[in-house]
Amino acid sequence: MNIGSKYEDEFILLQAFKANDLHAFRSLYDIYYHQLFNYASRILNDPEQAEDIISESFVIIWQKKDKFQSLKALAAYLYVVTRNACFEHLKKIKRLSHSQKEAEYILAQPGLYEAVDAVKAD
């Protein structure tokens, strides 16, 4: 892992990050972004959504920065948060797809459409 010229080792980088050092945050982003992007892109097959999820993952680690005792723990957490967000996104797409199929079926059945309207009116 290339820590960068400003930070001599992982401990110093982590301590700077925990002390709200934006340069340390940027160093962590530079270290992990491409790995996370490849990971999320393989899960989602959607580079734009992968970028959004990774951005959200970095916001989460910034908010929880005091909880990390090592860069290894931080990296593991980043991967877990990213993975979970990817799976949640896929579930959401599946639910939306299922709802869309139901709506298309209802719209294709004129009698069923009126029955749904009648139920909604009650």
Structure description:
- By secondary structure, this protein is mainly alpha-helical.
- It contains 5 helices and no strands.
- Helix 3 crosses helix 4.
Uncertain parts: none
Q: What integer is the average pLDDT?
A: 86
How many H/I helices? 5
Q: What structural category characterises the helix and strand content?
A: mainly alpha
Broad shape: elongated
SSE string: HHHHH
How many strands, which pairing sense, and closed or not: the largest β-sheet?
A: none
N-to-C CA distance: 63 Å
Our estimate of the beta-strand percent is under 5%
Rg estimate, integer Å = 22 Å
Number of strands: 0
Q: Helix content range of the residues, please?
A: over 70%
Give a concise summary:
By secondary structure, the chain is mainly α. The chain has helices at residues 10-18, 22-44, 47-63, 71-108, 110-121.
